[in-house]
Design brief:
This protein is mainly alpha-helical. 62% of the residues lie in helices and 4% in strands.
C-alpha cells in the first residue's frame, strides 16, 4: 500500500486560494462582458450613494429637457399660426385698400375671399399639438374659436360692426406654464381672444357678410374703411394692445428663454452621464489585463492542486 504525505492543510490552503481566484476571474469576466464594475449597488461600496444621487439628478434633468422639448414644439406651432395670421391681415388690408381705391378686379368677389381668409384665421387659432388646442388657455381639450356657437353674433353690415365681440372664444383666460428648472416656471403662449386676433376676425367677418354692388356705394365703402382701420390696429403699433407681431415677438422671447435653459440642461446632462459612467463603468483595457492575470493564476492553482494530490511517500523518498 502506497502511503501519501499528510498534505490536508496544504491542499485546503491552495483550494481556498483557487476558489478566490475563480471568484475574481468570474467578476472580471462579467466586467469585460458588461462594461460595468459591478452588477449591484453594494459592489460599489462608498460610491453607491454618489451613483444614486447622480442618477436622480440625471432623471430630473431629462424631465426638464422633455418639458422644454414639448414647450418648444408648441411655441413653434403657435408662432407659425401667429405669423400666418399677420400675413393674412396684411393681405386682406391690401385687398380692401384696392376696393377703397377702386382698383379691385371684381368687387363682387371680395366677400367670398374675405370669408375664406376669415376661416383660415379661425383654423390657425384652432391649431393643435396632438390633441391639445394651443390657443384655448387652460381648456386644452376645447376648440377655442367657434363662430357658430350661438354666443358670437355675426355682423350684418352696413354699418360696420365696431364690436369688439369675443363671443367666439370658448377657452379660458389661463396662460399655460412650463417647469424648466428647479423653482423656474415660465408662462408661455397666448389665447385666441387676444385683441389683435379679435380685430382680424371681426374685420374679415364684416366684409364676408357684405353684398357689394358694382361700383360700391358710399355705405359699402364706409364698411371697407372701417375694416381697414381695424386691421391697422391689429397690424400697426396702436399704443394700447399688442399687435399681431407683438404677440409673435413675445412667443419668440419665450422660445429664446426656454432655449437658453435647454443649452444649460444639455451641458448638465453630459456632465452627469460622464459622472455615472466613471462610477459604473470599468476600464476595459485594465479589466482585460486583470482577466489574463487571473486566468494565469487559476491555471497555476490547478497545477499546484494536481501536484499536491499526486505526492506520496514513495515519490517523496
Amino acid at each position: 500500500m502506497v502511503t501519501r504525505i499528510g498534505s490536508f492543510a496544504q491542499s485546503q490552503a491552495v483550494l481556498q486560494a483557487t476558489l478566490q481566484t475563480q471568484n475574481r476571474l468570474f467578476e472580471t469576466q462579467t466586467q469585460v462582458a458588461t462594461g460595468k464594475k459591478t452588477q449591484s449597488f453594494s459592489g460599489l461600496e462608498g460610491d453607491s450613494q454618489r451613483l444614486l444621487n447622480a442618477k436622480g439628478d440625471l432623471a430630473k434633468t431629462e424631465q426638464f429637457l422633455e418639458n422644454i422639448t414639448i414647450a418648444e414644439q408648441r411655441l413653434d406651432l403657435m408662432l407659425f399660426a401667429v405669423d400666418r395670421t399677420d400675413e393674412v391681415a396684411r393681405e386682406m388690408r391690401s385687398l380692401f385698400q384696392s376696393v377703397q381705391n377702386g382698383d379691385a378686379v371684381n368687387v363682387l368677389d371680395i366677400p367670398g375671399i374675405a370669408g375664406q381668409f376669415r376661416d383660415q384665421v379661425v383654423d390657425l387659432l384652432n391649431s393643435k399639438d396632438n390633441e391639445r388646442f394651443l390657443f384655448a388657455g387652460g381648456k386644452t381639450d376645447t376648440r377655442p374659436v367657434n363662430l357658430g356657437n350661438g354666443v358670437y353674433t355675426a355682423p350684418a353690415p352696413p354699418p360696420f360692426d365696431a364690436g369688439p365681440d369675443t363671443g367666439y372664444y370658448e377657452g379660458d383666460a389661463t396662460i399655460n406654464t412650463v417647469r424648466i428648472d428647479d423653482n423656474f416656471t415660465v408662462p408661455y403662449g397666448v389665447i385666441a381672444s387676444a385683441d389683435a386676433f379679435e380685430r382680424v376676425i371681426r374685420s374679415l367677418d364684416n366684409i364676408a357678410q357684405m353684398t357689394f354692388t358694382s361700383p360700391p356705394t358710399a355705405a359699402e365703402l364706409a364698411v371697407v374703411d372701417s375694416a381697414i382701420a381695424e386691421l391697422n390696429q391689429a397690424i400697426e403699433n396702436n399704443g394700447v394692445n399688442p399687435t399681431i407681431q407683438d404677440i409673435a415677438s413675445e412667443i419668440a422671447l419665450d422660445q429664446n428663454l426656454i432655449g437658453s435653459q435647454r443649452a444649460r440642461h444639455d451641458s448638465v446632462k453630459v456632465f452627469l452621464e460622464n459622472k455615472i459612467a466613471d462610477i459604473e463603468n470599468v476600464n476595459t483595457a485594465e479589466a482585460v489585463a486583470q482577466l489574463n492575470f487571473e486566468q494565469v493564476q487559476l491555471e497555476a492553482s490547478y497545477q499546484a492542486i494536481s501536484r499536491i494530490q499526486t505526492l506520496s511517500l514513495n515519490a517523496f523518498l
